[in-house]
Specification:
Elements (H helix, E strand, L loop, with lengths): L1 H4 L12 H13 L5 E4 L6 H13 L5 E5 H7 L1 H6 L13 H14 L8 E6 L6 H13 L4 E7 L7 H4 L3 E4 L8 H12 L3 E2 L1 H11 L3 H12 L4 E2 L1 H11 L3 H12 L3 H14 L4 H18 L5 H18 L6 H17 L1
Helix pairs in contact: 6-7, 9-11, 10-11, 10-12, 11-12, 13-14, 13-15, 13-17, 14-17, 15-16, 16-17
């Protein structure tokens, strides 16, 4: 996969985050680093930076353990049992939380053989419940000589203040905000012998919305059909391989027809089955609503404004809600009522 093939190997390969890289290079020279909290939108390069940092310290990823918090919270013991790293800790008689705590404490307390400390990386740390984060605070203090903790999240406020205060905080801006997105895509296109048109680059940025992982996957999929990447080819890829606009349209149609069970089932499939983030669903719903309002000219602009208000409320609740489905389902129900009775 191109996402792994072109993943940055060193800090100087990271694009769009010059200040963060500059600070971390300073720590690399000192051969030490504090605990880190990396926050910013999905696909901004947080995980790539963590592995690049590990390569700077160790030359490989031997002394880094990544915990995908979303997988653990959603699957619990099933996830622990399937992962070979936790074989020595797995016990059918113990709860998933107790196994998780024991594993983290053991890993963090042991010194690596070929380095002064190891890295423990919590990806999507916002999925960790508060009580687990509070337990990690104590482990961070006890293992400060043998391990450094790195947390990445899209929502910094979902990490408790006690952990945030023990970490050096870095904000990651979306790569779509500068020239880094275009530079990265052009670099990959050149390496693969592709020609991407200006319209294709614009379309790719529009679909990916700054998420580099999505953009690279779309580029790889489009390259299977042609060496020239344009907006038409990317439209075909988006309709067949990624979250299509029609899925959002189906959700809206179900809500407006009061098919509440279909709305719930659709949201569960997207979030738990397809693993699409709530914010991404919200963006697609917004675009689908705009298209629907253009077609439904008899509906007034006041109704559209009310629907946008419900979107804003859901957007705010998604920032701190542990269950993504609830704010979205509530929003769809409110929209249904507004559409039918106004």
């Amino acid at each position: 996969m191109w996402t792994e093939k072109y993943r940055p190997k060193r800090l100087h390969d990271i694009l769009g985050h010059d200040e963060v890289v500059k600070r971390l290079n300073g720590f690399v020279k000192e051969k030490t680093i504090p605990n880190l909290l990396l926050w910013g939108p999905k696909g901004a390069g947080k995980t790539s930076l963590v592995y690049a940092l590990a390569n700077e310290f160790y030359g490989d990823d031997e002394n880094i353990m990544r915990i995908e918090c979303r997988d653990f919270i959603e699957q619990r013991k099933k996830w622990l049992k399937a992962d070979k790293r936790f074989k020595l800790f797995y016990n059918e008689q113990k709860s998933a939380i107790n196994i998780f705590k024991a594993m983290i404490k053991e890993y963090a307390s042991l010194s690596p053989l070929n380095a002064p400390f190891k890295l423990l990386y919590f990806s999507n740390a916002d999925y960790l419940p508060v009580y687990l984060q509070q337990g990690l605070r104590r482990v961070m203090e006890q293992s400060s000589r043998t391990c450094r903790f790195i947390f990445s999240t899209t929502k910094a406020t979902s990490v408790i203040p006690a952990i945030r205060s023990r970490c050096l905080n870095f904000r990651f801006a979306s790569l779509a905000e500068g020239d880094a997105f275009a530079s990265l895509i052009m670099r990959i296109s050149d390496a693969e012998g592709l020609r991407i048109t200006e319209g294709g680059l614009k379309a790719l940025n529009g679909y990916a919305r700054g998420d580099v992982g999505v953009a690279i996957n779309m580029l790889e999929a489009a390259a299977t059909n042609s060496d020239t990447i344009d907006d038409v080819g990317l439209d075909v890829v988006a309709q067949n391989a990624f979250f299509p606009r029609r899925t959002a349209e189906e959700l809206i149609d179900s809500a407006f027809a009061s098919r509440h069970k279909d709305v719930r089932a659709g949201l569960e499939f997207l979030i738990r089955g397809e693993r699409i983030e709530g914010k991404d669903i919200l963006v697609e719903v917004h675009e689908a609503l705009r298209m629907k309002m253009r077609a439904e000219r008899k509906k007034s602009s006041k109704i559209f404004a009310r629907l946008m208000l419900y979107e804003g409320e859901a957007d705010l609740k998604l920032c701190y809600s542990l269950n993504t489905i609830i704010p979205l389902e509530e929003m769809m129900m409110k929209m249904s009522s507004q559409w039918r009775y106004k």
